[in-house]
Amino acid sequence: MAMDLVRLYLTEKGQTTLPYQILTINQAASAVGDQRFHLIKGEEVLKDFTYLSTDLLHPSDNGHIRMGANLAVRLIEERKRSFGV
């Protein structure tokens, strides 16, 4: 199955496309088998593009602050869920 996925998402030059990379990351996260491991996607940590710098790729200074606050909330939620609180 993995080879089929590789063929599906390879370009003519042999470079992987973004959907394949995302699929691979999700599969790797699922395969860890440790409930202490959590995949937190970037778009869950920074949902508002106005916190990006002028290149619309990297977070601005305020974006880093917002990401830290959002990540802290998410980690607290995951920890409570892990301990059944």
From TrEMBL:
The name this protein goes by in its record: SGNH hydrolase-type esterase domain-containing protein
Gene3D superfamilies documented for this protein: SGNH hydrolase
Superkingdom assignment: Bacteria
InterPro entries, per the entry: SGNH_hydro_sf
